[in-house]
Amino acid sequence: MPISDVAPSPLPEELVGYGVRVPGVDDIDALYELGSAADASVIGTAMITRAEVEQAIVSPTSKEDSRQLLVEREGVAVSWPWIEQVTPDRLAGDVQVHPDLDQRDNDALVAWGLDWFERVARVNFDGATPPERIQLGNWCYQEDATRPVQFARAGYESKRAFIRMTCDLPPGETYPEPKRKIVVRRANVDAVNPDSGDARLVHSIISTSFTDHYNYTVTPFDQWIRRRADDPGFDPSLWFLAEYDGRPLAALIMNRELEEEQNAGYVHYLGVLREGRGRGLAKALLYRGFAVSRDEGRTSVKLFVDAESPTGATRLYESVGMTSEQVVLEWQKWIIRS
User: Fold this and answer.
1) Mean pLDDT throughout 156-180?
2) Helices 221-229 and 199-209 sit at what angle, rounded to 10 degrees?
3) What is the pLDDT of residue 2?
4) Beta strand pairing status for 323-336 and 133-141?
5) pLDDT band at 93 (very low <50, low <70, confident <90, very high)
6) d(Cα 184, Cα 159) in Å, to the nearest integer?
């Protein structure tokens, strides 16, 4: 079910001269600049990408599954609250605020945005089979001293840490060949006709392998492939399968989301079925992804990993030369159906 349009509360009285509207295509550059400034004020660089902003505003998936607001002051974008429906009982959002605002206005805009998130969540209690409770998720950088206070004030709790890891790709680097019985191949994925190739197989492997992971819910194939096709930097030529003794037991999905700003490849998903773990399939897929990215002129490959992954993913990535680059913290609040 598409996420509903929900009007926010009026802006707080102290925010004189501020206005609210829904952002559009003409606001993409301003939102990218806003997000970049917000990132840089905390970690010294921007992690947001223009492709990410563009996808959030214009993609069919985003228009159905997310809602955005733009707060302006004197025609300048100063805050961007957005929220998306991950599953019917889980919403994820963020409130970007320009670092030039004083603390009073920053606090007021974040509190107002978080209140809007709850309004959106409560609409999801409507319908024939509403959930009993809905999880709201937000995040901040580990270095951020302000946002945790704002989250706690709104009733959120810190729940999990996620690590962005990176691996440099020197031009002449070589990577080990797959172990015996392992074959890595490109997945045959037709974005126009996904039933014609390996897309369902990739979905099955990723979905089944991620059932061990924190806060993961299986998404039906039709919705999942629609979202993948709308991902920033989507390119099915960067989807790979690993077979062991002829059986496909692992899958890797990469995209081009980070190429423009960071000249980096990005691992979106890596999943290995339980019966395939410990055989070298994940390493074989990663090495293929590294090699492809290197050959295309990328200087690094990046990914996010759950710091408490039950499958030991962090150790796996370290074993292939990846190092920690950034830590983000997830905060949660549960909204109970009244």
Assistant:
1) 96
2) 100
3) 67
4) antiparallel
5) very high
6) 36
| Helix H or strand E segment including 307 | none
Predicted local confidence at residue 130, as pLDDT: 78
Structure tokens at 80: 């961007």
Q: How many CB atoms lie within 10 A of CB 311?
A: 18
3-state secondary structure of 269: strand
Q: Which domains does the chain have, with CATH numbers?
A: 18-155 (3.40.630.30), 165-329 (3.40.630.30)
Is pLDDT above 70 for 128? no
Per-residue pLDDT tens for 273-309?
999 999 999 999 999 999 999 999 999 999 999 999 8
Vertex 3, ends 65 and 329: CA angle to 5°? 65
Cα distance between residue 79 and residue 62, in whole Å: 19
Secondary structure letter of residue 23 according to DSSP: -
pLDDT of residue 194: 85
Tokens of 139: 């995040």
Contact 337, 133 (CB under 8 A): yes
| Contact criterion met (CB below 8 Å) for 136 and 82 | no
At residue 182, does pLDDT exceed 70?
yes
pLDDT of residue 1: 54
- Whether 115 and 107 have beta carbons less than 8 Å apart is answered as no
Sign of the Cα pseudo-torsion (217, 221, 224, 228, in order): positive
Residue 95 phi, psi dihedral angles, 5° rounding: -125, 100
